[in-house]
Predict the structure.
Amino acid sequence: MSDPEDDRPGDTVLRVVDAERAGVRVDQFLVREFPQFSRTSVRRAIDRGAVRIDGVTVKASHILKSGHRIQFEIPEPPRTGPAAEEIPLEFLYLDEAIAVVNKPAGMVVHPAKGNWQGTLAGALKWHLESGGLSTVGGPVRPGIVHRLDRDTSGVIIVARSEESHHKLAKQFESRSVEKTYLAITQGQPDLDRDEIDLPIGIHPYQREKMAVRRDHPTSRSAQTRFEVLERFWKSALVRLSPKTGRTHQLRVHLAAIGSPVLGDALYSGRRGVPAGFYGDPPDGPPLLGRQALHAAKLSIQHPFSGEAMTFEAPLPEDMQNLLTILRTFGKSRDS
């Protein structure tokens, strides 16, 4: 057996279960093999698909058998949390309990492998730590109750105390939070409005992706309502209302009905939108440098007062400009 200290983050190591260590849970086995990691960090690695047994992802509770071959991708070591960074933020609302931010595209919400600087968490520590940020999510996620993908812009809510964090988390868990997104799609949904009800689990081959997977241990039910607001040539403007909050849910669901988010490198096969894509002048700058997905509206009950509150973030300039191009060039062809 190799010395755990020789294993570097990102390395994939192999362990073979012998008869003496059979019969235990996979998370317990890995904690014993890699004492530098807590059981929580090992479980997180399992949940994100970094652990495979005989080539298949499993749950933390999976019981090992003699001869099982475990592949474990070494996670980043625990850190004390992001450093406070003086990064401008647009606050949509702020009081002693919550902060609501219009997150720009390109900003990672909290630190992770390869992204320890320039995060929303680091910016929040600069702006708000003296006035309070929840510690429920641990030092790496100060105040973070939910998240948006790096290239998704829009409304995100932050807890400023442990009490507000717990109360907000209950609203997300009970699905009483109402979320509305706007997306520009590559291709068009067949129907003007519908509900997509497809389970989502870890992709069988690409660890960074999710996929529609039925009857798989990692799969969870997922529902998304959508409405087409405008149709263009090769595209549409779509309003999305997720009933559940699975990882990459909107992106996976739109791809599953043949209309992935425009510019989504993981699910549409193209990052951003190049000039000339819609018959516009091809020698200009790219029409969009990221996926065309925006968290436009979020409705909650205030964790202390119980007041119904709705926060909105206007469509960002890059998506507005893209819509102008679509309305200019995309309407001139059959939708």
